[in-house]
Amino acid sequence: MLSAKNLFQEILDDDESFRLFCSIAAGGESQGGWENGRIAALAPVSQRALAPKIARHGADEDKHGRIFDALLRKRGLTPVEVPRETDYTMLLEQYGIGLAHEQLGREEPLAERDIITYLAHSRVTEQRASEQMRLLRKYFADHPELGRAVRMISNDEDNHLAYCHEELLRFARSGHGRTIQSILRECALGEIRVYRDVSLAVMDHMGRILGWPRAKAALLAAGIHAVYAYERLVGWRRMVSLAPPERRDALGGPAVPAPEYG
């Protein structure tokens, strides 16, 4: 039976598909770590109090990248080059979502609106990350190889999402509500398109590695298109709502170290 659990299990059981999965995940997390580190360093004077939380966000993302690299090493595998069409972070930037790497590479302080853009972009992408990790946690929280990593990363992503809600609500109270909603909507509609394209590309690569028959590949592609159609119609709205999170000051302390893998 074709199910999310069986699909993930098939990818995890094969060394080459697992290698690609971890390489894609590690690359995206490491890029997110760099982006957050640069934003923390360039935060304007008016938002310097937020810089430690942004830095903590980046430290968590770096940690996630190291965890996926460690999972590869534990199997005696090395990372592979990430195909461009599967590079979620790069494609988001290509569509103008978030802050451009060119801007972050300069030494010019960011404006307050840039911080709002960063938080709105993160609120959307962390929604996706939180949902994906909760799905993995549902099926693999007790997995002997992946369980600790899945539980830790899932908890971190929930913290990141809570932090974005809290900080965006703070900006909304100071008069930026309309700007926030405009940026959130633009980011959400762009993200669901990128997520569809990346999902199709990843499944195409996985299908070739695992030798999926055409019927199976076509069914998975149809499912991805169906999810996109739903998200384009109404699903994107879950990415733009703001509510006080249950986890307050979620990034207020030091990052939790990555687990050791022998």
Average pLDDT score: 95
Describe the sheet with the most strands: none
Helix and strand content put the structural class at mainly alpha
Share in helix:
over 70%
Number of E strands:
0
Distance separating the two termini: 34 Å
General shape? globular
- Computed over alpha carbons, the radius of gyration is 18 Å
- The string of secondary-structure elements, in order, is HHHHHHHH
Low-pLDDT sequence parts: none
Structure description:
The structure is a single chain. The chain has 262 residues and is mainly α. It has helices spanning 4-13, 15-42, 51-74, 88-94, 101-105, 112-140, 147-210, 214-233. α2 runs antiparallel to α3 and α2 crosses α7. The chain is globular. The chain starts with a helix and ends in a 29-residue tail after the last helix. The mean pLDDT is 95.
Describe this structure in a few short sentences.
With 262 residues, the protein is mainly alpha-helical. 71% of the residues lie in helices and 0% in strands.
Layout: helices, strands, pairs:
Elements: H1 4-13, H2 15-42, H3 51-74, H4 88-94, H5 101-105, H6 112-140, H7 147-210, H8 214-233
